[in-house]
Amino acid sequence: MADDNTAIPTERFTPEPNAAGAPQQTPALTINGQYIKDLSFEAPNTPQIYTVLSSEQPKISVDIDVQAEPKSETMVEVVLRVRAEAKARDQLAYLLEMQYAGLFTINVPQEHVGPVVLIECPLILFPFLRRIVADITGDGGFAPLMLSPIDFASLYQQRVRAAQAAQQQPTQTA
Question: What are the φ/ψ torsions at residue 8 (nearest 5 degrees)?
């Protein structure tokens, strides 16, 4: 039985209005929904490929991309696209292509929108995408593909540097 003197953490409850009685500020990031936008799994060489895989590890290539599309002034759809291809002896074991998306409401200053959309939102979506990929490849009769964690902050920094480099390139006239 719980002790009546045990303090209940206040962060577990809706915050009270501030001292002036005004409602609290809206959250910086709200998840409105998450969903599979597109999904394709092909294993064209089954069941013969299982014989090959019994003696050889497949070569697996994985590509992941992040895309974002504004849906309103404060709402954005963030899409993680993954393409995983497994081959053994130049035979395709499986091909998985998926778009996993989330719809987010973002209430941050304009200078912070890019990092929120391309770092924070993918960090929220990635564990769900990872589980779905593992489930589908496992349900397809193969060893579940466990995607390694991704450093979305580094990817964002690379994107920013590439955009800055592109802006600094002199334009050529014909």
Answer: -95, 125
